[in-house]
Design goal:
The chain has 297 residues and is mainly alpha-helical. It has 2 domains: 186 residues, no CATH class; 54 residues, no CATH class. It is 43% helix and 10% strand. It contains 12 helices and 7 strands. A 3-stranded mixed sheet has the order 1-4-5. Strands 2-3 form a two-stranded antiparallel sheet. Strands 6-7 form a two-stranded antiparallel ribbon. A hairpin with a 2-residue loop joins strand 4 and strand 5.
């Protein structure tokens, strides 16, 4: 899908950055562009929601990158935000505009956008680590869960009755709030909850509450999930597909043969059926390989 060039957005972003440069001196380095954009919101100049979306997710560009619709070998190295649909981009533009008006730190929207991009990029191929096929090197079964706070928030969101009418894709929410898929999520679940429940609240009250709660950014950090390991050896067969060592996940050689790989901490599985033909074509070995795939699935 090709998205047409938006000259209004380009001039909007450039104009705002130009005003900042005049009042504060030389612009910061590229690594501090998010800080630059964030610092302008308390002043008189404001960037449109679409301008913020483009600037913060795609950089200072004159064109909106086209939507990447397929995870091909060539596209696998692309930034996940390139996979955001046009609907996603419109929705995020609205969220950036709302955050700017309400005094919400825009990094909360950034984190949500990147999680949504990863869902668009890997969602259909991601492997759930809580399906019983994850073990440590000593062959103890492992499962992953969110922190107690995140788990409680995720449960509230899913039971709120607002998921289906939220501006956020229900499929994304179910994926994002499942620790087997999104244990390494960046989005703040309480911020997600505020978005999901916004339609059922008084707008003014919701905006005041959100501004107070999310005006200061708190990073999720690296401690946003818990790995539970069984006390006894529970795996008696061959090498597992995925193992965990000190909180870090690795795909074993067996897992690689079954099409698993790591993409930025996410365990992703390729379409694996062609792997069958790479095995010796005796009936016994072929049936054995098919049986192992069925167990994994």
């Amino acid at each position: 899908m090709k998205v047409e060039k938006s000259t209004n957005v380009s001039s909007d972003v450039k104009s705002t950055l130009g005003n900042v440069a005049k009042t504060t001196g030389s612009p910061p380095a590229v690594a501090s562009r998010a800080t630059l954009a964030q610092s302008t919101f308390s002043g008189q100049t404001k960037i449109s929601g679409q301008g913020l979306m483009i600037f913060r997710l795609f950089g200072n560009t004159n064109t909106i990158p086209p939507v990447q619709t397929q995870l091909t070998k060539e596209a696998s190295g692309m930034n996940a935000v390139n996979f955001l649909t046009q609907g996603d981009r419109n929705m995020l533009s609205d969220l950036y505009a709302q955050a700017q008006d309400q005094g919400t730190d825009l990094r909360y929207v950034d984190d949500l956008a990147r999680d949504l991009g990863k869902y668009r990029k890997f969602g259909s191929e991601s492997g759930n680590l809580n399906t019983g096929n994850t073990y440590d090197k000593a062959r103890h079964k492992q499962t992953i869960e969110f922190t107690q706070k995140d788990a409680a928030t995720a449960l509230r969101i899913l039971n709120s009755g607002n998921v289906s009418r939220s501006v956020l894709d229900p499929g994304f929410l179910k994926y994002e709030l499942d620790s087997g898929y999104s244990f390494s999520h960046k989005a703040n679940f309480e911020y997600l909850e505020s978005i999901v429940n916004n339609s059922g609240q008084n707008k003014t009250t919701a905006h005041q509450s959100q501004a107070a709660k999310f005006s200061t950014y708190v990073s999720q950090g690296q401690n946003n999930f818990i790995v539970n390991t069984a006390s006894e050896v529970t795996f008696k067969a061959d090498e597992p597909d995925v193992i965990n060592k000190d909180g870090v996940f690795y795909v074993t050689e067996t897992g690689k043969k079954h099409g698993f790989r790591l993409e930025d901490k996410d365990v992703v599985q390729d379409n694996g059926f062609p792997l069958i033909v790479s095995q010796p074509k005796t009936l016994t070995r072929l049936l054995d390989h098919v049986f192992k795939i069925l167990i994994i699935l």
